[in-house]
Amino acid sequence: MSLPYPLPPSTAWDAELIRRYDVSGPRYTSYPTALSFAEFGPEEFTTALERGNASRRPLSLYVHIPFCRRICFYCACNKIATKNTDLARPYLTRLDREMALTSRHLDTSRPVSQLHWGGGTPTFLTLDQMSELIDRLDARFGLSGDRDRDYAIEIDPREADVLTLRHLQALGFNRLSLGVQDLDPRVQKAINRVQPRVLTESLIDEAARLGFHSLNLDLIYGLPLQTRASFAATLEQVIELAPARLSIFNYAHLPERFAPQRRIAAADLPGAEEKLGILQDTIERLQDAGYVHIGMDHFARPEDSLAVAQRQGSLQRNFQGYSSHADSDLVGLGVSAISRVDDVYAQNPTALGDYEAALDAGHLATVKGLRLSFDDRLRRHAIERLMCDMALDLGALGEAFGVDAEAYLSDALARLAPALADGLIIRRGPRLEVTAAGRLLIRHLAMAFDAHLPGQGGSRYSRVL
After folding, report:
1. Does this model's pTM top 0.85?
2. Which residues does S-adenosyl-L-methionine 1 bind (predicted)?
3. Are residues 22 and 78 in the same domain?
């Protein structure tokens, strides 16, 4: 079904209003967020895997490849810098062990509708290692050949070429995500990621020739030496390349948490006004070029599956951001990977040694997680629909959970009162609708529904914009 309200053609800009709401807060790739995870063992996770079989939901697999050949200074990912691809061999062995232990508790006749390799840099692997990993995944879970599958991989254009893309297509991948960040050579040098446009352009051309369903480019605003003019030049080139999707992430400078960021001089970062100007220009230019602002940092062409899913009301958020494949159980494999199965989140250790030791001892590496309460599940649904549909029907939410949603969420509605007064959200009976200005601050609006947030401390999160 189509959304019963029009999406805004442009974003309303009020700098003073935005400054008031630009606080630190979660991105809500999960609710509750990972900061709420507690001690959680393999037995609890395997029970969740078995319980989830009754749903017959499709499976979504995420594989974390932590290796990179070089470190980008902005990076906040869980990664290991090395140029030695032999180090991937023992890691692939441990991954296979994890797959074997996981698949024992899964009904593997459930279709694997979604597959995502992230990192690190998955294309750190040799072509033979990629083939080996796909073979092991297929043997353990049974991969799909369905045309509607969503099999994606993150690619560093500096570590891939046209032969890589042809190999990935042969392995069954049909969607690519290329890391670009910025096309300005000065910015690239400042973040230790020198990547001439020709590298990206050649891969985009080959992906189109090979018939990949969708291609995403990642950009980051707020990087050192960026200005409105320099990022506008990057956007102009990106629009010429015409990717189906774009992710425009906000750089969060947290050098106290992420050591590589200590190589970036705070004085080189664009100021708050310049950064907001970059974001304003970005949204307006992309919308003028025909892209749909899906929400937060995601843009897509109207015919792309993300935009279609949003129009149909089936868009979902997971640990990779927005997803067009709703209602699947996500199994995360590899160091630091997080699973979302039935009513449980389960996370592997972030230290490679701990991950290896657990699997060498013959059991899954799960160390943290959470089983959601009724309150968690209801609030998760409310946050997800608000962030995906840019609206929330309290009547439908109450029906789904058997409660008076307006009374149950009276605390959240009270916290939304300033946003209602400021025109970020409007109320039409039981329906909350996000306005053009509110769309920009959707993370802040979602925070009103978060019952875990008060005790977590905002400094643990990046700023909303």
Report:
1. yes
2. 62, 119, 154, 338
3. no
